[in-house]
Design a protein that fits this description.
The protein has helices at 21-24, 44-47, 85-93, 105-113, 123-135, 164-172, 176-181, 184-197, and strands spanning 6-14, 70-73, 97-100, 117-120, 140-144, 149-151, 157-159. By secondary structure, it is α/β, with parallel strands linked by helices.
């Protein structure tokens, strides 16, 4: 997993509340266990008009947002089912950070497991970012994880909180598997010891 330290990126606006995971990545795109190729399904139902043509107003259909890496959105983002394909699709599009007033708990945790930083700012700060992005397209900000700040182009800074353990893991690029592998020597030593102490447990595993 790629570490997240300091990231400067273009904001993509999605000013909607209670965006659930079925809207992030509809169920018909869940047929794979691979983390790539899912950007084609990202917000698929919203990218199209009722007649099936691309909606020119939706951000991902606009050329200026094709290289956006920070998603700006409304409260309770990622609610609904716990599908991990949702952060996979966002990451496959190129998003490394999501800024919102609040997130659904399971989605919030899944972001950290996939190298995405979810940043919670208060509603007024998020609205200010929406307003500035609307007036200054394209609009980029810097997210500084060590300092826990979102830095605007004019130098103004918004602070955010984050669990120290999650922060450290993201800075080091460690998901749950990576954290486990840090104890590889201890795990190997345990397996050798168990084989010596209780060989009958391993007789059917040859």
């Amino acid at each position: 997993m790629e570490p997240f330290i300091t990231h400067t990126g273009l904001l993509a606006p999605l000013n909607r509340l209670n965006v659930d995971t079925d809207q992030i990545i509809p169920k018909q795109y869940l047929k794979t266990i691979h983390r790539t190729g899912l950007k084609e399904g990202l917000f698929a139902d919203w990218r199209q008009t009722p007649d099936g043509t691309p909606d020119p107003e939706f951000f991902s259909n606009q050329p200026r947002y094709q290289k956006a890496t920070i998603l700006l959105t409304g409260e309770n983002f990622g609610c609904g089912s716990s599908r991990e394909h949702a952060p996979w699709a966002l990451l496959d599009y190129g998003f490394r950070c999501i800024i919102a007033p609040s997130f659904a708990d399971i989605f919030y945790n899944n972001c950290f497991q996939n190298g995405i930083l979810p940043v919670s700012l208060n509603a007024q700060e998020v609205q200010t970012l929406f307003d500035r992005e609307a007036r200054h397209k394209p609009y980029s900000v810097t997210v500084d994880l060590p300092e826990q700040q979102v830095i605007l182009p004019d130098g103004h800074r918004y602070s955010f909180t984050i669990d120290p353990f999650r922060k450290d893991s993201l800075l080091k690029g460690l998901d749950a598997i990576g954290l486990t592998l840090q104890s590889q020597e201890a795990i190997d030593a345990y397996e050798v010891r168990r084989l010596k102490e209780s060989p009958w447990l391993f007789q059917d595993m040859a």
